[in-house]
Design brief:
Shape: elongated
Radius of gyration: 37 Å
Number of strands: 21
Number of helices: 16
Distance between the termini: 22 Å
Structural class: alpha+beta
Oligomer: single chain
Strand content: 15-25%
Amino acid sequence: MFGSVRWRLVWIAVLVTICGFALVPETIVDEVTGESERVWPLKLGLDLQGGMQLTVEIYDPEGALSGEDLDDAVDRTLTTIRNRIDEFGVREPTIQRSGTRIIIELAGVDNPEQAKRIATETAFMEFKVVTDGQDFMEALERIDRAIVNEVGIENLQVTTLETEPEVDLSDILGGAADSATAEEAAAAEDPAAGEDPAADSLATEEEAADAVDEATARPLSALLGQGRILGEYLVPQEDQPTAAAWLELDGVREALPRGVTLHWGVEQVGAGAGSYVPLYVLEAEPLITGDMLQDAGPANRDPTFNQPIVPFETTRRGSRVFERGTARNIGENMAIVLDDRVQSYAVIRSVLSRRAQIELTPGASFQEAQELALVLRAGALPMPIEVVEERNVSASLGEDSIRQGRTAFIIGIVGVIIVMMIYYRAAGILAVGALLTYVIFMLGGLAGLEATLTLPGIAGLILSIGMAVDANVLIFERVREELAAGKTPRTAVDAGFGNALSAIIDANLTTLITGIILFQFGTGAVQGFAVTLCIGILASFFSAIYVTRTLFIMYLNRRGSRESVSI
């Protein structure tokens, strides 16, 4: 019997040591600052640590994807988002698929909006040549007619450009434009100008009437002003949403010339007293696309103009394609298009192949350059996605949850200990010893399996304590029945454990099956509860059947064979 107890104690000690080792805090060194930090290995969930949860799905309003195509798109999206979040540096993110949706849990993020932007940005990049805009200008008349036909002439209310936007070329291109000199020259040619105020007033009214007619008959043409380069046009900022809606009309799309596409710029251009949004006319066929990029970054600044830049490197196939495309367009402007918006443009001064760089707009921040490099390295999403649910949890709320959960856990443990010791006396003390090993097994199992402890998980932890105590109650009541029947203490204990085993297995097995089903079909908090519950059931079963019996054997070995059991 002594040998049996010895090996039981060895196995219990080994398991306690393994679980205790899994709970030893880790030392994590920050690669940037070099500072070290001691971190508890048990991961805390979103609701305990604070952070954000996003639920996203493929944006497919027309239902073009179904079956295997949709399944493949979701899988590729999941992989891309996981790569981006890993690059972003979130410790222990939870990214999982639930049907056709993807659930992203980022615990402990300091900048939720930045994380959301990185995770959901499509990041489809193209390099396109800026055309001279000649084909577009020739098609403007039929584009205007298409707008009038589809919108209705009575609904066309726009801001008319009475003059071209006065772009300050000295700031943008380094040239000089002196409008005052031009006005003086005009006055010199016409000495009588300004002598007839009535005539001037009448002319102004006629010009205003002509401008209104022009805006009605040619709505888009009335909004366009020449930009800084050929192929760029400036639209007043207040009219840009209207113009963008017009360009989405089916009739307008059909009226566009073949081989060109229109893209809005991300920057705003200040010209004179107004603010304008650039519209670019680009070749439809890109030089290369983002899937031909091999690497991007790290972001840095141009030493001459202090402008954020993102260096990149193409694949071997991409370098050949890029080289052929840039060789045909020396001297032309090349636009960098990200998610259908022109980020910047530059002159192709020489043939480009393997390595080049993206210059962001002058107003762009260095953080935007870093984010662009990150999403380009991780790859573009195969399809646009939309956020269907967003939840943010503050760090202070997480601390409150931890404090309340710790209080509930302590109260539950202390209450169980007091009741067991009062009601079952010495046997209750043995059950408390087994319960302490259960807590070590439980927490060590969570840490070793890298499970995430959530607030519902704490509820599952407390519930499994009840399951562990319930098993001990069944055993002790069976032992009492056997003692009342006149059996010796050792025989009564053996019979009590043996007779209660089937009931304990049934209760634990049915709860375990329920926990597995919750984990398989649940999401987020439900899965956190299920994981903790399942690990707790296994730990409580082992502690009740194996540890408690080992302690009972040791207790009986210290007493006489006929001496009564305190139970």
